[in-house]
User: Fold these one by one.
Assistant:
Number 1:
Amino acid sequence: MGLIMNVLRSLDISHNLTSDDLIAAIEQRMLVLLDPENSSSSVSKNIKQQSKAINASIYHLKTGGQRMRAKLCVYAGLALNLSNNNIICIAAACELIHNASLIHDDIQDRDEYRRDKKTVWALYGDSISICTGDLFLSAAYRSLSDIDQPKLIGKLIHLIHERVALVIHGQCADLEAKDKLLDDINLYEKVVIAKSGALIGLPLELCLILANMDKWLSKIPSLVEPFSIGYQILDDIKDLKEDAASENKQRSLNAILILEQAQHDLDPILIGSEIARIKFHQVAKIANEFPNNMGGKLAEIALQMAKQV
């Protein structure tokens, strides 16, 4: 455990922490897992200092982000009475996997900016960016090793692999659809559920496993699938100009472009907005069915986004 656990002990995670304290601890854990100065790895210090993947990983984390998956994990974990340590471990794993997917996704989409900052590939090149994404994935599994319920680690890893595989299949379908004039919104929803929904639901699923409440796992899709669709449509509206084909970039899979291609009489943005709004309110309703209001944070975020639409 080494320095990682020393850092966490300095936060006194054995006592009750606020949500903000836990989010700060999760952020610190990710940095510790990625930073060579805090690593107990046997790789020589000289080699680590020369690794641009380390610098790129820290750069990417510090560009910001909503940390939505960490927040979902903290809220659900506290609701289900998980230990602070376990919440931090699984939340960090979820965020690291999500950010790995963003780094690799930016390479494939040739997006030069994310969060108004240069993307990793645009700043460090494709090769270093691939290595950086891989480092995030490896760090995610390392984060699980400090769970204080070791008998459940195998089940957690099994689930994480299934969700990462689903994301990969969704990304492949997304890439296959690029530059095609699709008019099938149902196909779009299936791709989004695989590509985005899998990692949105993951923190909730991991919390349920650690709380020994596996019987609720089968209901998670009913909560996260409508959210992922609404979330992506809202993002598509914002990125409409960027997602249209240009001289230097392929057309992206975008709900508004699909609705436009379907030649509805109404404005495709209005149709997309209404679909998103319905999905968000569906999430808020379904969240009430889960134990201890563990889905309350997702419902809160969904209703906030419904107002944005």
Note: The longest strand covers residues 113-114.
Number 2:
Amino acid sequence: MTGRPARTRPLLLQRDFGVYWAASLLATSGMWLWRITGPILLFELTSSAFMLGVLSVASYGPILLLSFAGGVLADRFPRRALIAMSHGLTGTLFAVLAAVHATSGLSPALLCCAAVVEGVAVSLAKPALNSFVAELVPTDRLAEAIAVNTAQFTLAQLVGPAVATGLLVVGGPALPLAVAAALYLPLVVAMRLVHSHHAPHRGMASARLRDLVGTGLTAVRQRPVAQLLLVIAVGSIALEGGVRVLAPQFVRDALGRAESSAGMVLTGQALGSVVAVLVIGRVQRRWPPLRVARQAFVVIAFALAGYALAPNVGVALALAAVIGAAQTTSFSVATSALHQVTADHLRGRIMAVHAMALLGMRPVAGLAAGSLASVAGPRLASGAFVLLGAAGVLAVRRVATVLHEAPSTPELMASRPTLATSPGAPR
């Protein structure tokens, strides 16, 4: 490559970041193969919406319980090693599941146990993954790298459900599970190829575990801005319960289609997320970020109401795309702001709290959605999540107030976020 200094090249053309991004895209796509195949297979075995909620708890519960331990490890040890180990474990798990299903078949209990193991692996990897981007790029390009990395995740959301649906039709559940196992291998290899610029801070490796945990928890507890930004992200993720968790039952009982059509609805949601990533930079240049987040929650509330009343798969797919775009927008605003206010020596633990707040909320939302759908049906259960959209609007307004009132906190804040100081920001 000639004509442009390496520092100014597009990030995807820079060796370390490009290799990491491509391998992460494959691994995340593999994760979505599991996240689509597991619930569909479980619902075919049990015909129980409640069991869909149980599977969500089994998958995301370990993340709620163990992510902070993963954050401590991410600040204490090389993040590359943690990422490689956890993804190697997950790929092996999916290969075993594919083999078992192809030979003797999977049981509901085995699916739930596998979800627990996968959740433990994610809890170890997620804080390191969230922090690792900062090791691959210069500080002045970190915001750009976060946006590009978000595009990787949302693109995998688009590819994974679509591929899972096709593989389920062609080869049954064993095929997408086997492909998912293969897709985890490139990231394990990539961790051997990329150059990491992170070394644990002096004294971190020898510090007592209790002290590391206490420092990270204190950093969040004493910073109202960080707490509120996490609340916004939690609201964005919890809203998934209205679409993603209930999709197999929604398409069957509310729309009269086969459970495998759930992949179409989830593909629409992922497509909306991809569109949001492409335009969010332009949107934020025109409007203050908190105003963007507030309007995103308003859109989510109205789109969820329409989705709950959708007469067919086409309408449900279109509204799921709107919901996906608005969710990604509100989530991106909160996450980029949290990176802005996080010092590097706390990044692993703060990102662990981020993972706990995001992914740990999913079992709660999933169990609530599954339980409500069992009693009142999938339409009412999906519609009930409109209330979370309204709560998101209030949370964004509160963030704006705290940002105006709270003093700067250099220990945690790498730079003062300009979220509520632009003209027209919500007051």
Note: Residues 1-5, 407-427 have pLDDT under 50 and may be disordered.
Number 3:
Amino acid sequence: MVSTAIVIPAGPRDDIADTLDSVVCFIPQPRLIVIVDDTGVASTARLADMDRDIRVMPARLGVPEGVFGGLWVKLTDAYRFVIRDRKWDVVLRMDADALMIGHGLEALAAKRFADDPKLGILGAYEFGPNGMKRDWAPSANQLRSEIGLPGLRKPTLRSTLRLLVHKATRSGYEMGAHALGTCLISPRLIEVWEQFGWLNLSVLGHSRLGDDQLMGLLSAAAGYRCADLSGPDDQMAIQWRGLSDSPEALSQQGKTLVHSVRSFDDLTETEIRSYFRQARHGSSTAC
């Protein structure tokens, strides 16, 4: 059996309960689901009552808000907790506006990681679900700014990033390269981050790089590589904004994980979540 740890950051506008319901439905035990609770709502503690495998971890205080370096720092607490809990085959990092919609993703990822010891991250990397080449230029430009002359305003951050870029470049890193935030991570990679002390780099909280962009840099700096698992023929359909296809089409294509459920054409997030919720609870082959 494949063992899976799932890490999900939750903000105040997220329907985290529905996302959790999809994870409990489609990711089999043994599993651990860690919610990094940044909602500011005390009632989220009751999320742990949904399933015995759920742990709710308050987000670290005093860290910059948003989806940039501050989010990376908050998530490092969960990664550290996960690898100290037990040995896992796969770590699934999900955004709260992602949904599991099918079975089998964890087994496929575990095999890929077992077959390639230097594979660190699987997800929407070079290509998106519609086959389009992803553009890393915005993240590359931001990184060049933070390690260049503008970065002198934050000298400690600048020196830290320059060291990481130097190490990553030796592993063939392309500036700005990263998989989108909803992705699968090799536990070996997280263990290396811990060994190097990179899960303690609180200075990264001051970066304007996205947490997924920092993760791509840190993966390459550790000597690991990213690969695609969200192309047209893959199980995942992950893109930055909205769904890549209609809920019906994604289900028929055999996708198992989708992002983002915020919108598709004229469909709202509520309508999209309702479709997938009815599908998983109305089928004898789902939950």
Note: The radius of gyration is 18 Å.
